[in-house]
Amino acid sequence: MALLFKLKSLRLGYSILSSTFASKTKRFVVGDRKPSNFSLQNQLLCRHFTSEISANQHNFTVTYLINSCGLSPKAAISASKKVELQTPERADSVLALVRNHGLSEAQLSKFVRLHPEVLLADPEQTLLPKLRFFISLGISKEDLAKTLAFCPQILSRSLEKEILPDYNFLRSLIPENKVVSVLKGRSWFFFEGHSKNVVPNIDLLRQLGGIRSV
């Protein structure tokens, strides 16, 4: 009897131990799953919010291009692929600057449509020095506005490293009063550079007259 009692006690103890271990193991596994599920939910939530924020920013850019720059919905959607506006402040400053330099609303619309990235430029540090340089050459606001509407990419070039060297090269070939003619009629010269366009096509400059040397 004593032996039978001990055997039953041993079985009961084993059963309790097994049950306890299984319970703890289950809690451990379940506890492991929760962070995984929680992490997955967070990832999905973050993706949702990121997608929503991106969509809102895109919608803001398109709306701004239509309402503030005069672009058509189709042109605004196309331009929004090249520029994304976070806030309107810098773009507003760029528009105010070029308006002050003579661009009409129609020219402004073309200016932005051809080069929407200009809306992200620093108006005081990047754009204004170039505008002042062109004005210093003697070009009128009206002609400058036409030039910017035709080739707004000219403002994306470096004043010190590209525009000034091109100007100095041009001055070595033609009189100073002819430089403005080049800027008004052939602004691509200041956009693409003299090494690509002028040297291979020097006869084009002769049409302007007064070439001193090559």
Automatic annotation (TrEMBL):
Family annotation (Pfam families): mTERF
GO terms under biological process: DNA-templated transcription termination
Annotated signal sequence range: none
Keywords annotated in UniProt: Transcription, Transcription regulation, Transcription termination, Transit peptide
One Gene Ontology MF term: nucleic acid binding
Recorded family membership: Belongs to the mTERF family.
Protein known as: Uncharacterized protein
